[in-house]
Amino acid sequence: MSTSRRGAFIVIEGLDRSGKSTQADVMLDRLNASGISAKLMKFPDRTTAIGQMINAYLQSKADLDDHVIHLLFAANRWELASTITQTLESGTHVLCDRYSFSGIAFSASKSALKHKEAIPTPSSSDIPYTNPNLSYIWCRDPERGLPAPDLTLFLDISPEAASARGGYGEERYEKAEMQARVREVFGQIGNEMLSHNQNEDRSEPTKDGAQPRWVVIDAGNDKTTVSKDMWAHVEPLIAGVDSPIGRLWYSDDN
User: Fold this and answer.
1) CB neighbours (10 Å) of residue 95?
2) Does the record bear Transferase in its keywords (predicted)?
């Protein structure tokens, strides 16, 4: 069996204005300054043809059916899935600013908001956003099989604190009620990711040093503290990863 290590796939998630892009840039600079090969990707990737359609929608320059825009977001990730895989297999780490989890959280929350559904306390993988037109499961299915992150860092911040940051409100989803619902769905996704991680809850590092797939970072702290907290979870991965690249929710069908 080959003992070569691949790059680690690290995703940074969070509400709008939680500091994702800033922290992704800080992390990339730190890795590169240490001579560690890393690539930063951002979703949506607005440089592609699909990404340009998404960009027009997010800037409220175009209106699209909720199903259509969700599938465009998913397609934007699929068109770059092979690039992620090839980069990781070459030994380069991939940092990703937003990924599938954002797509699911925002679409499911939008459905709940539109239909005035209540937000019950998350208790299982059967997420309670069950509007038949845009349910959680429907939103998740187009993401099934995409490369799975080795680590997701969720930058948690209250919608109120996020709204006080510069630039808030410039894009379609930057509304307080929407962000509150998105935060709830992110919490459920985090629970699901942990519970489905090799059928065990790895909310803490195991004795062999393996890291959980989903870590919550307090993004309300100052920039330096947030960077330090994130690095504590990334550092164990910089030597590379021995395991094959996983696929999101693939085990649900196996």
Assistant:
1) 22
2) yes
Chain CA centroid to CA 51, Å = 17
**pLDDT-based confidence at residue 134 (cuts at 50, 70, 90):** confident
**Domain ranges across the chain:** 9-247
Residue 106 burial (CB count, 10 A):
24
> For the segment 88-109, what is each residue's pLDDT rounded down to a tens digit?
999 999 999 999 999 999 898 8
DSSP letters, 174-222, are --HHHHHHHHHHHHHHHHHHHHTSTTS--SS--TT-PPPSEEEEETTS-
The owner of tokens 């998350």 is 122
Q: Are 112 and 132 in contact (CB under 8 A)?
A: no
User: What's domain 9-247's superfamily in CATH?
Assistant: P-loop containing nucleotide triphosphate hydrolases (3.40.50.300)
106 vs 104: CA distance, rounded Å: 6
Indicate yes or no: pTM above 0.85. no
Provide the mean pLDDT of the chain.
83
The secondary structure of the chain in percent helix, strand, coil, rounded to multiples of 5, reads 45, 10, 45
Which of 31, 12, 26, 9 lies closest to 90 in space, CA to CA?
Answer: 9
What pLDDT was estimated at residue 193? 83
